[in-house]
Amino acid sequence: MEPGERSPQQIRQALLFFVFLGGSLVCSETWRYSVAEEMEIGSFIGNVVKDIGLGVEDLAARGARVIFDDYKPYLQLDRQTGNLILNEKLDREALCDLTEPCILNFQILLENPLQFFRAELRVKDINDHTPTFLNKHILLKISESTTPGTSFQMDSAQDLDVGKNAVQNYTLSPNPHFHLKLQDSEEGRKYAELLLDQPLDREKEPELRLTLTALDGGSPPRSATALVRVLVSDINDNAPEFERSVYEVLVPENSPLDSLVVKVSATDLDAGLNGELSYSFSHVSRDIRKTFEIHPISGEVRLKALLDFELIKSYTINIQAIDGGSLSGKSTILVSVVDVNDNPPEIVITSLTSPIPENSSPDMVVAVFSLRDRDSGDNGRMVCSIQDNLPFLLKPTFKNFYTLVTESPLDREKRAEYNITITVTDMGTPRLKTEHNITVLVSDVNDNAPAFTQTSYTLSVRENNSPALHIGSVRATDRDAGANAQVTYSLLPPLDAHVPLASLVSINPDNGHLFALRSLDYEALRAFEFRVGAADRGSPALSSQALVRVLVVDDNDNAPFVLYPLQNASAPCTELVPRAAEAGYLVTKVVAVDGDSGQNAWLSYQLLKATEPGLFGVWAHNGEVRTARLLSERDAAKHRLVVLVKDNGEPPLSASVTLHVLLVDGFSQPYLPAPEAEAADAAPAAPLTVYLVVALASVSSLFVFSVLLFVAWRLCRRGGAASVGRCSVPEGHFPGHLVDVSGTGTLSQSYQYDVCLKGGSGTSEFNFLKSVASNHQESVNDVEENSNFINGFGFN
């Protein structure tokens, strides 16, 4: 505690000291103030200036303050105005509980000089609490023999409020038996008593439910309710009574032991022990006690012995019911024994034939049986039947004998087994029925031929396959059974005798798997057809057939073949190109074919190597070799080109061809086609002296050169040989595999090609696709004309 501060205990001791030692300083008059509970903080209570008789300025000067006996600041003194202000909300029930009035004592203290003024604050009650019953369910047990006017105490409702706000009244829900009587307790509170107006009858109304309501005196009043349950206690004032005075029962003679004959029931309006009943026989004979028994609690009468209609047709049984108070009631049971149909029909099978063939004729006897019923009269008359929608028929024969025969043809493939239920019903009441099941099996007859799953099959196999390759399967089914359904497959003789079917395919006779016996070649055989047969093992055997078409799928197994220029010629072909040729000038055309088909035969051309890259180009789709730019004097005279021909297969196959190109100026330069000459040109240059000697020798031998040229011209005419500068033409036919098998652009076997330089044109022009079948004499004449043209240029 900080210095200068005083605890409440110290303040109280100081005040008491001043009170006892300075009694003359305390005013004997007590001022009274009042406030309603639950008022808001800051509410005005009163003004002490008028009561004290001092000025407002004295309050502040003399340090006026309010001190309650419990030292709690319920009020606050405004020294500027002298007003007493509510400092906190007051709860009367918390401050004074049930004490009324609720007074809070306090003092007003003034200093300099010290002076006390006594005062009290009365807290007024408001109706802020609802009455409550401590027990919402009030249970009262009252005997039905209680006399009217008897009162019963009940718990009162509790209300925290006091005075008129406390419980002031009780009400009871309307009823003919009870009413309320209000009483005042010693504490001044009201409570209610329950008074009985009329006698109670438990048998009519065993329980009453009443609503008790408590009301306070507030405005508006508050209320609470409680449920009052009145249980009426029983007295033994009622004797048992049976539901019927006479019970008439029909019992079949074949009722088993312990079967229920009848269940009697009596009622007693009393409750508890007075309502508990016990059943028993009353004055009955020994035969009844041997035949029947009654359960003392449930009242069930059951058989102890079997009944026989021929011995005793009826029984009269007297029974009684006694309650716990020894009051009893009586009744009678009349039991009539009924003759019943207690013997079911019997079925005796004499003979049964199973299985039966499916091609059995109608009226074939399947089974013979007899019927018997030990009853007589209508109970012994019988009706026999089988299920509907069966290919069988019942025929009565001698007395109670019946035969089961076929009514229509059977088909094992539709149904191989019949479960036939023979039902026999007598004409008794109730009707008794006997059922007997027999199973008839249908044996198979070979009446169904094997059927292929498809009328025709299309199989695909890639060429160059491995021998014994499984290429597909055929399948046939037979609806028969056993050996009649075992299918054997075979190859039927081909319709086309030229197809070597036995060397192409084979079939597994057990499962119909097809195998290629050898490797197939698409170029030789693209497709073939054959028939397969399926036969069962019945007697006689039945068969069917189907068509199988095998398609051979092409494989990229043929490399492109170059038709022009041929690479196996005795002399290489050299193409002449004038140096004055423009860009795009056609030098030559590479012609190639492919023995495959489809995309495997699509050819593309590519310049693989060149003496001078960039000078020549090859068109990818047609193989034309053209100049890529203008020629110049700096370009080499001789060029070697390697052209690659490639197909579009997977993987692609290719071939290459070598072309020799010679650049000439107006075709006036000497043509040196031989490879030996090319090697000689590559030799190192001779010294200057050698060139001078050669120049003098050339002038001297001009005459000799003219003579040699004349002799060469004569030889060309006589031998029909090609002159210098002309390409060799292959004789004979090309290999047989270069055949147009697809019609997609490859060349026929009847064509070969030559290339020649036409005379008189002045430029390199070429003739392609000239048929070998044309007149040979035209070729000779063409050679002669070209020879004359070359002689005009001075070639040897």
From TrEMBL:
The protein's name: Protocadherin beta-18-like
UniProt cross-references to InterPro entries, sorted A to Z: Cadherin-like_dom, Cadherin-like_sf, Cadherin_C, Cadherin_CS, Cadherin_N, Protocadherin/Cadherin-CA
PANTHER family in UniProt: CADHERIN-87A, PROTOCADHERIN BETA-18-RELATED
GO MF annotation: an example: calcium ion binding
A GO BP annotation: homophilic cell adhesion via plasma membrane adhesion molecules
Cellular component annotations (GO), alphabetically ordered: plasma membrane
Domain of life (superkingdom): Eukaryota
Presence of keyword Protein transport: no
Keyword Iron-sulfur: no
Subcellular compartments: Membrane
SUPFAM superfamilies reported in the protein's UniProt record: Cadherin-like
Membrane topology type: Single-pass membrane protein
Gene3D superfamilies tied to this protein: Cadherins (2.60.40.60)
Broad class of where this protein is predominantly found: membrane
Entry's transmembrane regions: 690-713
Keywords, in A-Z order: Calcium, Cell adhesion, Glycoprotein, Membrane, Repeat, Signal, Transmembrane, Transmembrane helix
Cadherin domain ranges (all copies): 74-133, 142-242, 243-347, 348-452, 453-562, 577-677
Annotated gene: LOC117311927
